[in-house]
# Entry
Amino acid sequence: MIEKLRSLSIEVEQKNEHLYKVSVDFQDLESTLLRFLNEFDYITLDSINYRDDIEDEKFCITYCLQTAKRNHVLMIQTFINREKATLPTMHRIWPQAEIMEREMHEMLGVDFPGHPTLIDFALEYWNDIPPLRRDFDTLKYVEGMDPFRKNQRDDNLDVKVEMKRIRAEKKAAKLKEEAEAAAKENKEEPDNG
Amino acid sequence: MNIGFHGDKIKDEGVQCTMENKGGQFLIEDAIKWFRSKSIFVVAYGTGCGAIEMPPTFTSRYDAERMGITGVATPRQADVIILSGYLAFKTLRRVIRTYEQMQKPRYIMTLGSCPINGGMYWDSYNTIKKLDDFIPIDVSVNGCMPRPEAVIEGFMLLQERIKNGEEAGWEKYDKDIKQYKKNQNRALGGHIEPSYETDWYNMNSGGVA
# Structure
C-alpha cells in the first residue's frame, strides 16, 4: 500500500516498522482525510493527537488512520495557528471523532464549527485558559485554587530526621521511666534517720 | 450507642424497650449490629484505577459473599460505597450525590493513597487532595492497588466496627454537616448539581427548605 501511495506522488515518511506519516497543509486536511478513507480504505480513525508548539505559535494536530487489513498506522499531520485555532469537524464521517474533538476543544481550546456538543467534558465550570496549552501554569493554578492544599503534604517527611526524632523520643521515655522507678524505690525505703 | 434500623423511627421504639426491659434491649441492639455486620451491600460504583480489584473480590475467586458482602446496583439499597482511587472534581459531585442518596447507616471505604492525601496527583489541577474534608471516610485500605485480600480485610475491619457500635462516618456527617457543606461548596465553587431542595442543615425538622 505504501508503494502505491508513493507511486501516486504522495510523500510518505516512515517513522518505524508499523508507522507512516503524511504531512498536509491545513487547507487540504479534510479532502486528504476523505481521500484516504474513500480511495485507500483507511476506514478507522484511531485517535486525534495534539501538541502545543508554543515557540512556532502553532498547534501540531495528528490524525491516526488505520484499517484491519494492513498492519500499520498512517498519521496525517498538519499545523494550525495557535491564535483562533479552528479545525473542520469530522464527526459526520467518523462518529468517534465527536468525543475526541470535544476533548480537544476543552484541553486545547480549538474551535470546531458545526460540532453538535461542544460543552464541558471532564472539566466542569473551568475558569482559566485550557490546561494543556503550555502557557498554562499548573502549579500556580493549583496553589491558587485548592483551599485544602497546605504548603506541605502531611507525609512529606525526611526519613533520617524522623528516625532520629523517634530514637530520641524513645531514649527520653526510657530515661524518664528509669528516673521514676528510682524515685519510687527511694520513697519505699524506710527512713531510718 | 443506639443505631436504628431506618433512622429515628426505630430509635424511639428502642427507647420504649429500654423502659420495659433493659437487658432485652441490649440483646436486641447487639443482635441488630451483628446481623448488620453480616449483610453488607456494596453499591456498584468505581472511581479511578482500583475498580478493577472489585470484580475478583466479589466473584468466585475471592468470593466476598461468604462473609456476607455482596454488590447491589443502586445507591438507595446499598450500605457501603467503595471509592477506589483518585477523584476529580466532576467525580466528587457525583459521589456526594450518591452518598446522600444512600440510606443510613452508610459507610465509605477508600482504596489506595489518592483519596487520603492526593497521592501522585498532588499537583494536579483537577483532582481533590483530601477526601475526608468533603465526606467522612470509615475505612481506608492502603496499597496501590490493594489486592482483593486487602479489600476483604478492610471489610472485616468495618464489620468489627459495626459489631462494636463505634461512631460511624454517617453520624459525623450528620453532626458536622455545616462544615462538610462549607468545604464542598468551597472546593466545587458552589456548583453542586443537581441543586437540591433539601435543607441539609435541619434534617430533624422535616428537611425541606
In short: Chain A has two domains: 2-145, 157-187. Chain A has a mean pLDDT of 87. The two ends of chain A are 112 Å apart (CA to CA). Chain A touches chain B at residues 122-125, 131, 138-139, 141-142, 145-149, 153-155 (CB under 8 Å).
